[in-house]
Amino acid sequence: RQRQMCIRDRLMRNIEAVNRFSGQHDTDKVSVMIVPTSGFVLHDKLPENAPMFDQNTAFKMMLDNISAKAEFIDTRELMLNHRDEYIFYKTDHHWTSRGAFLAYSHWRGENGESVSEGEFKIEEATNSFKGSLYSKTLLSSCPADKIELYTEAVPTDYTVYYNFGREVSHSVYALDNLQKRDKYQVFLDGNHPEATIQTGNENGKRLLIFKDSFANSFIPFLLSDYESIHIIDLRYFISDIEDYIAENSVTEYLFLYNLKNFCEDKNLEKCLSDL
Questions:
Q1: Has residue 50 got a pLDDT over 90?
Q2: What per-residue confidence (pLDDT) applies to 156?
Q3: Secondary structure (DSSP) of the chain
Q4: 109 vs 275, residue with greater confidence
Q5: Whether the predicted pLDDT of 1 surpasses 80
């Protein structure tokens, strides 16, 4: 019970932090996309009496308290409707590229736009991925996952700059990481304090994403939508956020988190409290 109260308190603090940020940037679009855990979506796959915090209550708290100045994107129904598809890895806590695509398509749909899977080429990058859940159990009989990469059928020219330009890449996929134990790092080379994707688009739309690792496999779908995509992981980011926003002329914001992380992350309050 005490842990549940701590989670609720932290969640409320993070909601208030997002609300402060939305109020500070009320002339720009702010979206909040929260993803339920695989345990919530695939609850019938869990062992009997497996402990699970009440995610519906957490989502209700967000629905009731996130400011109307922010667009809240509740992905529960979407994920549940596709629960029989390969939307979460079996050996890892992340969603698959298919799950991330469904969320991207849903987000576009909420904004009156449509997207089809046919706009992307799908390539199996590996079929030997054993992720974070496997690392906790080390069951040798556990079958490995596959990782699929979505690339645009009509490619967009872009460059990825990691950590304020210290590292440069011409792909959102770090294929060398498929040789590592944590093959999920193929998406955007894992977690960095900051990254910027400059595209060849000239539409004046510049998105800033506050995120956890779930966003890493979501971001590749955004390449044709924005002139630039700015990515901040508040767990590691130590610069001034408002200075960063001004320097990059940001026009739109997206908070993208797995529910568990959004309920527990102390960095949202810490980094956004002074805005």
A1: no
A2: 92
A3: -HHHHHHHHHHHHHHHHHHHHHHHTTTSEEEEEEE--HHHHTGGGSPTT-----HHHHHHHHHHHS-TTEEEEE-HHHHHHTTTSS-B-SSSSSB-HHHHHHHHHHHHHHTT----GGGEEEEEEEEEE--HHHHHH--TTSPPEEEEEEEESSPPPEEEEETTTTEEES-SB-GGGGGSS-GGGGBTTS--SEEEEEES--S--EEEEEE-GGGGGTGGGGTTT-SEEEEE-TTT--S-HHHHHHHTT--EEEEEEEHHHHHH-SHHHHHHTT-
A4: 109
A5: no
